[in-house]
Structure formats: C-alpha cells, structure tokens
Specification:
heterodimer; A: 466 residues; alpha+beta; 5-stranded antiparallel beta sheet; 12 strands; 45% helix; elongated; B: 586 residues; mainly alpha; 32 helices; 2 strands; 65% helix
Chain lengths: 466, 586
C-alpha cells in the first residue's frame, strides 16, 4: 500500500504517535479518571480505528527521525510531530506494535507507564515485561537493530598502495585521468587513449615487475581505471602470444581498456555493495555491456570493433552470458578480453571477498574453458603465466617431493622437478612430470605446493641447478 | 521518473534512465523499504548468549569493517544493548533454520518472497553452510546436525538435487559442505560420493578428494570407502599417497589434473586460426553485426538514432557499390526492429525510417531501369526489395502515383506482380487507400499472390469505382479458388446491371482447367442455375460439350426444367443441358 493510499484513508503513523504522547502528557497533568484523560484515551483509540479495519496488528517504526508504517516512511512535517518521535526514541522505543484487541484501559496503562518512566526506559528491565505486568497484552514496545546482511566486508583502496614499476604507475595515472573522465560523463578522447595504449604497449607489457603486480593478488577495488589498465595489459600480452599484427593489437588494447565503461551508469552502491548482489541488482549490473557499447558507438575516432567488445565481453564461448545475443559466438577479440577480464576480476578484490590467489584464479579459468571461455585462449593465457616458479616445492601424486627446476610454456602444469631427499635436493635426480604412460595419461602430477619449511629444504640457490 | 517507473520490470537503474533523459547533474542513491523481519523479539538474555558466542568464534569471523548495507531490521527488547546484528549472529539467534533460509532467500531475491520452506532451503543451503561454519564449533555442530535432520525430511528428488547441485560442488571446491555431509546417514554419504564416480573418467581422483575432505570417522570412513571403492576402485589408487588435507600443506592443486591445459599441436593450430581470423576480420561487416545486436538492446531512441545513422551511411554506400551482402543486412536490421517492436516501438520506428531512407524512390527507379539491361539484376533486386519489406512497398506505391515516372510504372507493377507473394502482406494495408488508382494497382498485384487473399479482396467486390470493381473480379478469377468464385457468383444478383455483367464476364473468363472444376461446382447447385439460367446456359454450352459422361451428373437435374414454359430462360437451359448430354453420348 502506498503512502498516498494510506493518507487517503486518514492513517499516518504520526497520528498514532501524537495520540500516544498526548495521552502520556495528560496522564501527568490530570488525576486518574479526569475527563481530559478519558478524552485523550478515546482520541488514541480512535486513531487506531481505521488501520484495524483490514488488519489485526499495526506496527510503527521510528528510524532516523522518520516514522514508518509497515516499512513505508512518512514525512514529519511539523515540530510537534518531530517532538513526539524524539520523545519516544529517548525512551528507547523504536517500534510500537498494537494488536486489534487492545482495550482503552490498556492504552491508558501504556501511557501511564511511559509517564512514570520519566526521561528514559530502565536498562535492566524491558518495557515489554513491564507492560505485561500491568496487564497490557495488546501493546508491544521494542528497539530495532539493523541486520547486516553479510558476515564481513572489506574497504579496499581504489588503487594499489605501492606501484613497483614507475611506467605502470604512469599508465595508472593516465588511465585515472582519461577513463575517470569517461566515468564522469565525458566522451572518450581517442588521442588520450591512443597515447595510453602506446605507453602500455611499449613500457608496461614488457616490464616483469609490472606484470607480476598485475598477475598477482590485487588488494584494491578492481572495477576502476586500474582494472582497465590491467585488462589492457594482459590482453596485449595474450595478443602478442597469438602473434597478432599491430593493427589488431591496437584494436584489442583499446577495446580492453574501454570494455567496462558502461559501469559509469551503474549505481555506485551496487558496484561497491559489500555483499553478493540480489537478482534485481544483478540484472542492473548486466546492463553495463549494452550501456558501454552505446557510449562507445556514439564516440568518434575509436576503432570500429571497440564497442563490439564492450557489448560482448560477458558473452560466453558456448553461446550464453549477457546480454542475450542469441546463438552468435562472440568475436574472437571479445573472447580474448573475456579471458583476461575474468582472470583480472578473480585476482582483484571485492567488498565482500578477498582476492583469489593466481592458482585459484587459473583453476577457475580452467573450469570455465570450453563452456564459458575459449579453451585455446585459456591455455595460451595460462601458459604465459608462470605456474610453478622455479624453486617452488611441490609434491607429486606419487608422494615424491621435489623442487621445480624447469617449466615448459607448452605444458605449464607439469614442470621438471629435482627430488628432495632428507631435506636435500638430490642433484641429478630429475623427474619430468610431463611424462605420460602408454595410454597417454600423465604418470604423475602435482597435487600440492609446499612451503619450503614443510619440505625441510636446506636453502640453496636455484640457479645452481637450473 | 515516470519513464523509469514504466521500465522497472526491465531492471533498469534510475541512474541509467536519468542519463538517457540527458540529466547529468542529479545523482541518486537507492534506499530500501524499511523491512522489519517477522521474527521473535530478541530478549536481553538471548543477546547475552550471543555475546558469549561472539567471543567463542574465531577472530577472523568477527571482522566487520567498511561500508554496511542494512537490508533489514529485527526487534529486540528495550533493555538490550546491541548496535547491530550480522548474519552469523542471526544464524546463532534463530533456532528455526527455515526462518534463516527464508531470510537468505529474500535477500538474494531483493525483497520478500513467498517461497516454500524446501525452496528457500534449496536456494540458500550454501549460505547456511557458510554461516554455520562461522559459528563457534559447539553451536556450529548443533546447527549442522539440525540442518542434516532437515535435509532428511525433504523428498528424495529435492534432496538428491541439492546434494548434486550444491553440496558436492561445495565439497570439492571449498570443503565446507563436509561438515554437513558427514552428518548424513551412511547410505546418503555413499550415494553422494557415488555420483562422483561418473566424473572419474574425466577427473581422476575426485572421489578420493571427496573422501579426504569428508574426513569421516574411522569406522564410517571404512564403510563408505568400501561401499564406494567397490564400484570405482578407490582402494587401488595409490595407497601411499599422503593426505591432501594434512597440516602444513600448501595450496591444493589436485583439481588441476582434471583439466588438460597443455598447449599441444592442436591448440597451436587453433591459436594460429584465431590469429588469422582476428586479423582478417571484416570491420564493416562486424560493425553491422554488433550494431544490429545493440539496437535490439538499446532503450534510448536518441542513442539508437545516432547509431542507426552510421548504419544507414554504411548500407547506403554498399547499395551504391552494388554489394551482394546488403540484402542480408537489411533483413537483419528489419528482424532486429521486429524483435523490439512490441516493447520498444520507438526504436523499431527508427529502423523503419532508416529503411525508407535507404529504399528511396531514386533507388527503386534505378533498380527498375536496371531490370531491362541485365537479367541477373532482377534476382538481386527481388532479394533487396523483399528485404526492405514495408519500406519498398511504401516507396513503390508512392512511385506508382508519380506522373513523371509513367514510363517505368508498368515495369514496376509487372515486377511486383511477378513477386506478388513477397509483397502482398505489406500491400494489404493499401486496399483501404483513398486513391482508387492505388487500390486498383494493389488489387491487381494481390491477385497474382494467389490463394489466401480472398478475404482481403472480399470487401472490394462491387467497388463503386468500376475500374477497381473489374480489377477485383479479375484478381478473383486469377486466384480461382472456390471462395473466389463464390465472391464472383455473389455479384451475379447485383442490382447494378454493369456489376452483373462484369461478374458474368468474369466467370466466362475462368481459365479452362480451373474454370471447369469451379463451373461444375456452380452448376451443380440448383439454386444457382434456377436463379441465373441465362448465365448457366452459356456456361453449359462453354464447358459441358465433349467432356464425357462425368457432366451428366451435373446436367441431369436441369432436364426437369425443360417444360417450364412460363420461364423461357430456364426452359432454354433445360434444353441446352439435354443437348449437351446427347452430344456427350455420341
């Protein structure tokens, strides 16, 4: 029922609250049985007549100086009304519940109790108990406590606190300016974006320190300009792995940089909601590819395929995802951006969760390969990223423990290890985990990585044997 | 706000609507309706227990920082002192799991729903496990036991679906469901783990991983392992392998073995193909593709108009260049327009307008002139004009009325007649046009479209403009169906003699083969030949002679009128029938 509908029926929570506080005041001013008290009690009872015509109970809430009836807020449009709310809140009453069977004597008893309390309710006894002691069954007064619908949340910074590579830092600054302007409503500036892309292509993609920072856990909000730069960098990395020519790389980088501009029209409270989204919020989020493509399609000077990637970057390899584009497979550029965007999002922070470590993120990519992501592109991307850094200690499916001494780009999950025996690397005892048996199955695989201490490994520089 | 109110069911944000309306300087923030959960009032005593519980929880589970979203409120007694309650607190405070499940379900749905207990439980069991897992061990154990009991009260189908869709994936991914699964009866655990057996081929080690994560007590482990091992051979797998869940272990990578991520020759070939395809992308074609997709989803007509202008330019240039692909793209955009016509008519109208611009009179005239020169261009024109649909019809009709194009008018009409079936659906609306010349042309074309168009022509039979009326009868003759013939026959009794004459003439001009069949039908009806004996006699003379004995059946009923001397025309029909029968016997 809308506020207007309730108003039309002459019912507002303010009326009820004013009647209650008025009766309370008169109870203090006049002796019991006085006609003024009787008249006030009748006013109070009359204020309840209408709501009880179609319900057995009314509940009025007072939150943040606003009265609500069954959750709908009502304007407090006079000082006298505001005073009534304040008076009850000072007594610790934030929720007033009245049953249909309530009698006038119960209403009077309630007002009398409130009068006797003085300025505030006792901290050692509940008003509910005190009312019941006086025979008041039809009125309940309680406090309201907000329920936080999540168990924990994080307040991540907007950008990394420390940037390892100055060139990467510069690209973030530049993106903050150009992509920030788009988020503020400006039209994309192709020149500024081209300059940023050149910088990323020439200075960032080849920087191992920048890449390690982008590929590792990112403890900052990753729906910002940083996410755009990171996705563009990873897209360029993957594009180069594919051997794309300069023209295709430029298109790829531009589209990766701008793929999320549609989020500028998604309310911040949804983007930054400290908890999983409900269905309605999720559907609003799902509008961002269309919004983004709309923005980019109307901007001049951009690559022809840039809006397409914004539109398709949440489409799936086996047609699915959003927006609904039927059975069409997304363009391969969109598929490339989808892979790196997924990885970047997983290793980035969210208000309601910690970022995933790279291994977990890659595992999720692997799960998505073939269904949601192009499997060949996932393999190419995973092969780009060092899976088991040289020197890491792993345990195989046969129980051997070894140190990774060599990795293969073509088979990143099956490194060459040097076995550890009694806490010492058995130099010369190497085992290639890429070895397969007669049926084509791997003979061994890594089942876990171990901390160096778990292997009780004596420190030894890996370069000596690598 | 009014626009947004209409579109709320399309899950559009108010910010998006504001932006579409050109409002840039008003920001918005959503506020939920204040919702007080319908739960028992929490007493101070219960809150004291909550404080104890909070102390007993692991420290990291008490971490609450950053922004908070209050989606709901609960009632507590006035002597309670608590600033806020989180969902883990609620998991402690609520003994009834159904209440918590419903709250979780409502939160996920974005508002109060009327879900059944089983439905709410099914949708929120993963969150329940998460929340219970955050409670102190003793309380958590109680809650998991209660949850296990509740699960066993569900029907088998629901419970199995829940196990397969939620509990097993959760067990494999996070291991948290283990605390619930291990409290189920042994038979349930065996069933649950057995469902992983099907995946064993593609993902070896899953069953073992599941058993490791379940960490069942000694006897129970043996029983379940025996039961499951018998069917999948779990006992044969590497007995010396260390437990994955051992203390001090690093990240568990067992699942990696499930996924084949090596870059073999096949992948290299696929990647090479990807490179070729990316570099070989035809940008104008791709642009048209994504523009068509975008038009299907855009809500702002101004934005759609800008994008369609780009499409118009591109298609216009393709038309000028004589591209053979242009018809397909025109059809694609028409399909896009039709898909949004019902709920975003303004966007569909923009596409229609674009079609009208592209299918201009000049374009059509150029097409018509080219038909005379090249036979091949007729086919291409047919594809193009059919793709344009209503736009081409509108322009054609417009052109037919233009004096200065009289020379090619005939050619245009002939073209439309040859392709009448394609144009007829769009032409029908012109049958009610005020200009009789338009109506006559349209009737003529529709006549070529054949069967099925009789109802559309029916209102025009006996049209006050004689040239239209005649064209209608010609069209009906061309259609030649029983329905068409009935319409013509209906005109035989017209009070206007010229209309009658036209109808008679039309019937006489029926094509021989079709006509004979239809005439037999007419003459076989005594009401017809008694009412129109003159016409019947001429039809008998025209169709019956030398047609064999199969006409006798039709003619015989006419013999009885040979001696109705008071009706000479009827009598003449009788004698004509007798003569035809005699002739057929010879």
């Amino acid at each position: 029922m809308s506020e207007q509908e309730l108003d039309a029926r002459g019912l507002t929570p303010i009326t009820v609250l004013r009647a209650l506080t008025g009766l309370r005041r008169n109870v203090g001013l006049y002796p019991p049985g006085h006609s003024v008290i009787e008249s006030s009690t009748r006013d109070f009872a009359r204020s309840l007549d209408r709501p009880f015509q179609d319900r057995d109970r009314i509940r009025i809430e007072i939150v943040e100086k606003t009265a609500h009836l069954e959750g709908y807020p009502y304007r407090v449009d006079s000082h006298a009304n505001a005073d009534a709310l304040t008076e009850l809140q000072q007594l610790g009453i934030e929720c007033l519940q009245i049953e249909r069977e309530v009698g006038p004597e119960e209403l009077a008893a309630t007002a009398t109790l409130l009068h006797e309390l003085g300025d505030r309710a006792p901290s050692e006894r509940s008003l509910r108990d005190m009312l019941r002691e006086r025979g008041v069954e039809g009125v309940t007064m309680t406090k309201l406590v907000p329920v936080e619908t999540r168990s924990r949340s994080y307040d991540w910074p907007e950008a990394p606190l420390e940037v390892l590579d100055p060139a990467y830092g510069k690209s973030l600054d530049s993106a903050h300016e150009s992509i920030g302007a788009i988020f503020d409503g400006a039209t994309p500036d192709p020149d500024a974006l081209r300059s940023l892309i050149s910088w990323v292509a020439e200075q960032v993609v080849d920087s191992s320190s920048a890449l390690s920072q982008i590929l590792s856990v990112k403890r900052y909000e990753n729906h910002t300009y940083c996410h755009s730069v990171n996705v563009a960098t990873l897209a360029l990395l993957l594009g180069r792995r594919l051997g794309l020519n300069e023209e295709a790389l430029t298109t790829l980088a531009e589209s990766a940089l701008l793929h999320d501009v549609g989020k500028r029209q998604i309310p911040t409270e949804i983007l930054k909601k400290p908890g999983p989204l409900n269905k309605r919020e999720w559907r609003i989020i799902q509008r961002h590819p269309v919004i983004g493509a709309g923005i980019l399609a109307r901007a001049s000077g951009l690559e022809a395929l840039t809006p397409m990637v914004a539109l398709e970057h949440h489409r799936e390899y086996k047609p699915g995802g959003y927006p609904d584009l039927g059975d069409q497979k997304p363009h391969l550029l969109s598929q490339i951006v989808a892979v790196v965007d997924t990885y970047e999002a997983l290793t980035g922070a969210r208000p309601y969760r910690e970022p995933l470590v790279p291994e977990e993120a890659r595992l999720i990519l692997a799960r998505m390969a073939g269904e949601k992501l192009n499997p060949a592109l996932v393999k190419a991307f995973v092969s780009l990223v060092t899976f088991f850094p040289l020197g890491s200690v792993v345990r195989t499916s046969r129980g051997e423990v070894g140190v990774v001494v060599d990795t293969s780009e073509s088979n990143p999950l099956h490194p060459v290890i040097e076995l550890v025996e009694n806490g010492t690397r058995a130099t010369g005892l190497r085992m290639d985990l890429a070895e397969r048996d007669g049926s084509g199955q791997y003979v061994r695989h890594v089942v876990e990585t171990l901390p160096q201490s778990a292997a009780d490994l004596k420190a030894e520089p890996i370069a000596a044997s690598a | 706000m009014a626009t947004w109110d209409r579109r709320r069911d399309q899950y559009e944000s108010f910010a998006e609507t504001l932006a579409e309306q050109g409002v840039g300087s008003i920001g918005t923030r959503s506020a939920n309706k204040l919702e007080v959960l319908d739960l028992e009032i929490i007493t101070a005593e219960r809150l004291a227990q909550l404080s104890e519980e909070r102390r007993a929880r692991a420290p990291e589970d008490q971490l609450v920082e950053g922004q908070t979203v209050h989606q709901a409120w609960i009632q507590v007694d006035t002597d309670c002192d608590v600033a806020s309650i989180d969902m883990v607190d609620l998991a402690f405070l609520l003994d009834n799991q159904g209440d918590l499940a419903r709250i979780l379900y409502d939160i996920a749905e974005g508002g109060p729903q009327s879900a059944t207990g089983a439905e709410a439980l099914r949708e929120s069991v993963a969150e329940l496990i998460e929340l219970y897992g955050s409670l102190s061990p003793r309380i958590a154990e109680q809650r998991f036991s209660d949850l296990a009991r509740t699960l066993m009260t569900l029907d088998d189908k629901t419970r199995n679906a829940l196990t397969q869709d939620v509990l097993l994936p959760d067990l494999l991914e996070t291991g948290k469901a283990a605390r619930l699964l291990r409290l189920l009866p042994e038979a349930e655990i065996v069933d649950a783990v057995r469902t992983l057996a099907d995946l064993e081929v593609g993902a070896p080690g899953l069953v073992k991983l599941a058993l490791d994560r379940l960490a069942l007590a000694g006897d129970q482990h043996t029983t379940v392992a025996d039961a499951v091992g018998g069917s999948i051979g779990v006992d044969e797998a590497d007995p010396g392998s260390p437990s994955l869940s051992g203390d001090g272990a690093g990240r568990d990578l067992e699942e990696y073995t499930v996924h084949e991520l090596s870059v073999g020759e096949e992948t290299v070939a696929e990647l090479a193909l990807i490179k070729t395809e990316v570099e070989g992308s035809d940008r104008p074609t791709e642009r048209l593709r994504w523009c068509a997709n975008l038009v299907r989803h855009l809500r702002n007509p101004d934005h759609a108009e800008e994008i369609l202008k780009q499409v118009e330019d591109l298609l216009g240039s393709w038309i000028s260049d004589g591209s053979t692909e242009v018809a397909d793209w025109i059809q694609e955009f028409r399909t896009a327009a039709d898909s949004v016509r019902e709920y975003r008519p303004e966007i569909a109208e923009l596409v229609d307008n674009m079609m009208l611009v592209l299918c201009s009179p000049d374009f059509l005239l150029a097409q018509a002139r080219s038909w005379a020169d090249q036979e091949a261009s007729v086919d291409e024109s047919r594809r193009l004009l059919t793709a344009f649909g209503p736009a081409s019809v509108d322009t054609l009709i417009h052109l037919l009325e233009e004096e200065q194009v009289r020379a090619v008018r005939r050619r245009l009409v002939d073209f439309m007649c040859e392709n009448a079936e394609a144009f007829a659906p769009e032409l029908v609306r012109y049958l009610s046009d005020e200009r009789w010349t338009v109506v006559r042309n349209v009737v003529r074309i529709i006549g070529f479209a054949g069967l099925g168009h009789e109802p559309e022509l029916a209102p025009l039979v006996g049209h006050p403009e004689e040239r239209v009326a005649r064209e209608v009868l010609v069209a009906l003759v061309r259609i030649g169906s029983p329905e068409a013939l009935d319409l013509i026959a209906g005109q035989l009794g017209h009070t206007d003699s010229s209309q009658r004459a036209m109808a008679e003439e039309s019937i006489r001009t029926l094509p021989v083969e079709d006509g004979r069949r239809q005439v037999r039908r007419l003459l076989g009806d005594p009401r017809f030949f008694r009412r129109y004996p003159g016409l019947a006699r001429s039809l008998v003379r025209q169709y019956a002679p030398a047609r064999g004995g199969d006409w006798n059946e039709i003619l015989r009923p006419m013999l009885g009128v040979r001696f109705q001397l008071w009706r000479p025309r009827l009598m003449a029909l009788g004698w004509a029938a007798a003569a035809a029968m005699k002739e057929s016997r010879q």
